[in-house]
Every structure is written in C-alpha cells, then in structure tokens.
C-alpha cells in the first residue's frame, strides 16, 4: 500500500517506513504530523475520490530539522562596478511515515 501526499507544496509517493525531506513544518522532533493524501493505492484498488480520501489518514513522525544545499546568487552589471553576492539555504524537515490508515 502506498499513497501520494501533499507535503510542503510538492507531491510525494510514500509508504509506511519511508523517510522523506519536506519543507519546514512547525512541529519539533518526536512530534507527529498528518499529511494530506491525494491518492491511495492498495493492491489493485486505487482511490482518488475526495470524499473517500477524507477518511484516509497518513501520519508521519518528525525526525529532525535540516537545511538544503547552499545556493549562491551573483548579480553583476557590466561597466558600472555593481557586484552583489548572496547565499541561501532552504529550511527543511526530515519525517518518517509511520502509518497509512484507510
């Protein structure tokens, strides 16, 4: 059994025991969060109806907070002496899927 869930603006394919990195959530390590299911596949049965998915619950445990890779932004304008360097690291959260209850 697996599910497609919405996690942090993206869609992720998850099954029980999977570890994934999503956009930052406010929960701290050890807490449990619910992910919104968009599709549920159980053998040959595929559920995509919104009314049936309202009863499906996908639970995940927050493992730790993390940061994405360093991104370097460089702005430059020719002949004016304008140079600007800036960096960014996206805050992320690592979660482990603990249950998919249909």
From TrEMBL:
Q: Which InterPro entries match?
A: bL21-like, bL21-like_sf, Ribosomal_bL21, Ribosomal_bL21_CS
Please give the Gene Ontology molecular function terms for this protein.
rRNA binding; structural constituent of ribosome
Question: Looking at the record's lineage, which domain of life comes first?
Answer: Bacteria
Q: Would you tell me the protein name for this molecule?
A: Large ribosomal subunit protein bL21
Gene it is expressed from: rplU
Quaternary structure note: Part of the 50S ribosomal subunit. Contacts protein L20.
Source organism per entry reads Leekyejoonella antrihumi
Q: Listed GO cellular component terms? A: cytoplasm; ribonucleoprotein complex; ribosome
Outline what the protein does: This protein binds to 23S rRNA in the presence of protein L20.
* Assigned keywords, A-Z: Ribonucleoprotein, Ribosomal protein, RNA-binding, rRNA-binding
Example GO biological process: translation
Mind telling me which NCBIfam families this protein's record contains? L21
* Family from the record: Belongs to the bacterial ribosomal protein bL21 family.
